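Q: Structure tokens for this one, please.
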Amino acid sequence: MHYHYVPEDAAELTRSGFSVGIGSPGFLADMVLAGKEYASDLAQYPRVFHDALARHYMSLRGMARLDIWLLHDLLSGHGVGGQIFAAWFAALSPHPLYRPLLLDKVKPPHHQYALYLALQAINELEGAAPTESSIALAEIRSSLLTMPQPDVRLRLVPTEEQTSRLEEERQRIAAIYRREGADAARAGLKGTLLAYYRMDHEQWLRAGSPSAEDYLADLAKSPA
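A: Here is the predicted structure, written as tokens:
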């Protein structure tokens, strides 16, 4: 499996209890109703958050971040839940290029509400008649588009050259650990590409979400 984004980062978009039933008529109806009942809170995002709008916030992040690379990763390497979220995000942000991936990766299609919606949304781009579910989806999409679009950042997976460097660093740190123990190995991680990819997503965001190259360059400038 070839990923485009660090899997732990991409998984942040699917950390939600809403995977079951995403795209079902009941799910759509609940979202439409919540968007109307809490429209004032929706309009104040991101200054104001409301628990009843959790599905909107989850959807907004995925809708804002989706590209064909992320779609591929979620469909191929994040299990059934990842496939459901991928299809839901594609329904909210449809593109004809997404159709082959959706048809290839999500099986069986007739069991996936979100997949049906995504394919219908793509077909509507090409002139297909709307359905009752796609009309509700369009209402949800319109409400999300009025909200400030979040800047959802993900790390790219290592390049081939970086992968070779990571393996060399792993071997070097392992040798330090065997010779000198855990404290020396932790000290040896400083300034390495391995340290960059060992950060979890939250740590990386707190560090300013640098690219691997910028991270290493900034460390090289730091006084010893």
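A few notes: The two ends are 39 Å apart (CA to CA). The chain has 14 helices and no strands.
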